[in-house]
Amino acid sequence: MNLKTSPSSSRRYEGCTLTGALSVTTAVEDAVTIVHGPAGCAHHNFSLLHAVMADQGRLHLPPVVSTDLGERDVIFGGEEALERTVRRVVDGGAAAVFVLTTCIAGTIGDDVASVCAADFGVPVVPVPTSGFLGGVFTDGLHAALLALAGGAERAPAPAGTVTIVGEKNLEFEVEENYSEVKRLLATLGVGVGLRFVREVRSADLGRVGAGRLNILREPALVPVGEALKERFGTPYVSSFPIGMEGSITFLRDVGSALGVPSDDAVAAEEERQEEMIASFADIRGAAFSPGSMTLHAVEYAPVRRVMEALDLKADTGGAGLALPYSPPVGTAGVRRLLHRWRRQIHA
Amino acid sequence: MPERLCSNPVWPCAMCGAVSCLSGFSGLDVVIHGSSGCYFYPASLIQTPIHATLIMEEEVIFGAEERLRRVVGEVAGHDRPVAVVQTCVPAVTGEDIGKALDGMEEAFIVDSPGFVGGMEEGYRRAVAALAPTVDPGETGVTIDGLNPVDPFWRGNLLEAERLVSAAGGTVAAAIAAGPLDSLRRCGAAVLQTNPGLACGIGTPAGSLLGIPATKAAFERLADLCDLDVGAVLDEADAAEERIGRATDKYLSRSDPPTVAVFGEAAYTGFVSDALARYLDAEVVVRAPRNGEEAVTSLDEIRDLVLGNKPDLILGSSFEHAVAPDVPYVGITFPQRGRVRLKSRALVGIEGSLALMDDVLNACLEKRGS
User: Fold this and answer.
1) Nearest residue, CB atoms, B8 vs list A9, A63, A104
2) Which chain B residue shows the shortest CA-CA distance from A79?
3) Which CATH superfamily is domain A161-240 in?
4) Nearest Cα residue to B109 out of B74, B149, B134, B72
5) B251-275 pLDDT per residue, tens
6) What is the pTM of this model?
7) Would you call A42 helix, strand, or coil by DSSP?
8) How far B317 CA lies from chain A's nearest CA (Å)?
9) Best CATH choice for the domain A12-149 from the list 3.40.1440.60, 3.40.710.10, 3.40.50.1980, 3.40.50.11540
C-alpha cells in the first residue's frame, strides 16, 4: 500500500464504510450481501476480501452481488434495480440478505430501508453504510455488527461461555489471534460459544445475547459492547489481550467477570512468558532503529515493554525494526514479533 | 439490469483503469478525486505512489473544490504534470472541477468515474487525455498496450525491449510505461502487447502475443524501420522447436488436457491458440473479461468451470478459488495469495516459453499427485 495524501484528518484515511460492513456481513456463510451501487464498488471490495482471504490461506469467495447501477439509474433512481436484485438473490436460496449502500446510492437518495421492509420470505437486513457518506471503515463495521445483532433475543447463557465480538476479519493473523485468546480462556476453563461475526451461519446470529461475557477485539468497539450490554445485559472485556502484561490482565479480568478463580492460570502464564523471553536471550541488548512516531504511540506501549524486558535499545544506527500493524495479541503474538526482530538482527 | 445477476464482479471499473494507465508513467503525478474507499483499492494494486483527495461527507455537501485545489497544489509542488481522475460521486454531484483547477497549468482532468464502464474504458480515457503523438523524425519503435495492473506489465515491457534491441532497434516510447515526455515523440511503428488496449497512433507492426505473431510483427518491423530481424526470427524458430520437444514428450504419455481460459480478451485468444497449437489441447471454455462476450461475474465463471470440468484452468486467482483442485496457471489479474517478485512476460518469445513451462509443469504436478 502506498499513501501520499494530505494528513488534515485521520478519518480521511480510514477507508470506506462498505469495506468495514462487508468484513462482517461476508462472514455469515449462508447469507448474501448486496452492494447497492455501481459494479466497481462491489468489485473493489470483493477483490480486497479475496486478497485478504487468499493471504490467510482461504480460497473462499463470499457472495457479493451488485445492483450494478449505471448512468441511467444514477439519473432515474436505483430502487427498482435493488428490489429486483433482492428478489433474485432470495430466489437463489439465500438464508438471509444484507443490503449495503454505496455513496452513489446515498447521493441519488434511494430509500433502501423501504425496499428492504417488503416481505421477501427471509430476513433482508439493511445496513446503513452509504459509502463514505456514512462515515468511515469503523462506522461500517459497527453498523454491521449492530444490524446483525438486531434479530437476536435475550437467551439463557450457559456457564463458562463467552462471545467474541468484532474480530478483524481482514487481519492477516486473525485466526492466530483467535487461537491465542481461546488458549488463554481455556486456562480458565472458559469456552467460546460464538464468534460474532466469523465463520457463522445466519441462524447463529440469534445467539449473540447468549454469552456470559462479551470479549471485544479492541477498545474501539466499546460503543458496540455498550449497545449489546444494554440490549442483552452482557458485560464485556474491552480488548483482546495485548502483549505480555495485557495477557495477565486479561486473565484476571475475565476470571473476575465470570467469577472464576484466575490465580493458577496467571501463574502458569507468567512462567510461560519468562520461558519465552529467555529463549530470545541472544538478542538481549541489541540496538534497533524503529519508526519513532509509531513506537511512541499509546497503543504500542506493550511493544515498548517487550523491548525493555530484553533491554533492546532504540538507536538510529541499529537494525531496522518492523513494528506490527496491530500490537501483538497475547504471549504468542509477542513470540512471533520477537522471531521477526531476531531475523532482522541477523539479516 | 443485465440478464444475470451482477454477482461478485471480477473486473475493475473505469476509474481503476485510468489510474492504472497513468501510474505507469514516470514524471507524472496522479490524484484520485474521491473518497478513501475509491483510493485504497487501486493503491493496493499499483506499485507506485498515487495521491487522493480523500473527500468526506461535508465536502460532498459544501463542495470539494477547495480540497481538490489544496491537494493538487501540494502535489504540483513536485514540478510535474498532475492528472486528476474523477470518481463517481464528484461526477454525480456535477462539480466543475475544471473551474476548480483554474490557473493550475500543470493539472489536467481524466473524466473516468467508475460507472461509465470497465477497466479498458478508463484506460482509453487516460490515454486520450495524455494524447500520445508520433514524431515523424523518430526512428525508434513504440510499445503499446502495457497496463500496470497486469501481472505481466513489466515483464512484457522488458521482453519487447529485448526483442527490439536484438533486431538492432530502439524503443522510443511505451504506453503505459517510462517517461511521460516520451509520449511527445512516439515512433511511428507500433508493436502491440495487448491489442485490446491499442492507443491508435502510428502504423501497427503487429502483436507480440505468441511466437507466430511475434515473427510476423518483426518481419513487418523490418520493412517499417529497416531493421535486421534475422536474430529474432532465428530465436523464435529455436524456441518453437524447444516447445515442440517438450510437448511431444508430454503427449507421448498423456492425453492433451481440456482447458478453460479466462482473461483479458487478447490474452484469452493468444493462450487458447497456443495450447491448441503446441499441445493439441481442447479449449472447452474461452471466457474473455472484456468485449461483447465478456464474463465478469463469479457465478458465470463457476458455472463454466463446474459445467465443463476442465483438466487445466488458466485465469486469475478467482478461477483458482472456484476449483482449487484443478491445475491452474495465472494469466490475468488478480493473482492473489502468491508471491510474484520476478518480472514475467506473456508476450514475445520468452512469454510463450514461460506459458508453456507453467502449463506443462501444472499438468505434470497433477499427474504426479
Assistant:
1) A63
2) B1
3) Nitrogenase molybdenum iron protein domain (3.40.50.1980)
4) B72
5) 999 999 999 999 999 999 999 999 9
6) 0.85
7) helix
8) 9
9) 3.40.50.1980
